[in-house]
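User: My collaborator sent over this chain with a note saying "see what the structure looks like." That's all I know about it. Can you take a look?
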Amino acid sequence: MKVSWIFVSIVILGVSLVGCSADPASPAPTVTVAPAPLATLAPTATASPTPIPPPESPFALRSECTHANYRIYVSLPASYESSGSERYPVIYLLDADWYFDGSHWRLEGDGVAGIVAGLGDGGSIPESILVGIGYEEGNGRDTDFLWYPDLFYRFLTQELIPLVEEEYLADTAAGGTLIGHSDGGYFTMYALFQYTGEDKPPFTRFVAISGDYTKNNADLFTEELRLYRRLEDQGELDVALYMTVGGREEARFITSNQQLAERLEGRGYDRFRFRSEPYPALTHANIIRPAAVNGLRWVFDE
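Assistant: Without extra context I'll predict from the sequence alone. Here is the result:
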């Protein structure tokens, strides 16, 4: 198993963002990044062009959509080579300050980076690029996931995803995978409900772990209804969703997961791959690792 990331915090220079459109379906802005001038990235005098390595991880990224400063973590597959031609699916992880590499007590060991690397090495999922979204200053998860999810969704789709697809060997045709726990699970479902049926949706796989869908006056149920009405004519929801909750969590988590799962199952969408899998013996804290492992396996098992 080989996971490639370097924990040197740098600010990316030369990021050019063309504003933040209020329409999530509008074309993404052009985003260009020049890596920081580190000695290890300096080109050498050779007869052939030297491939430009991707930015080091983690790096800082200022959003014009949310006006927040994010810390972006990246873990590359063992076979990744900047000069190569192979393209990799991208998995986007919320709350990366907690869950990315196992350095935080909430998910010890090797974190989601180790899970993705292990699953890729073992052939359970394709080798994938893992991109984690954290924060440079404090923790803005309440603002991003609950209070202004529309702005955070625009940051992901109009700023971060175009940057990742520009700077890394990302498989742009595959669509991204989004994984979140707790309020991150709430936002993961919010992101799914923004699906419009376009040819290239930003996300095609979702792993929503232990969200409390009663928050914000249960507004996610309204978002789900909006999705249903938007797709009523075409009847097709071409994504995969793995949704889970622990049996030893608070009642609001268990009940709202059951209600939302029942509603989605009753819609009868074509091409919708959906699995709701409760973990009866697990709590809000210890569900993360098994749910991430099983969820990623399932959404990639096409």
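A starting point for your reply to your collaborator: The chain has eight helices and nine strands.
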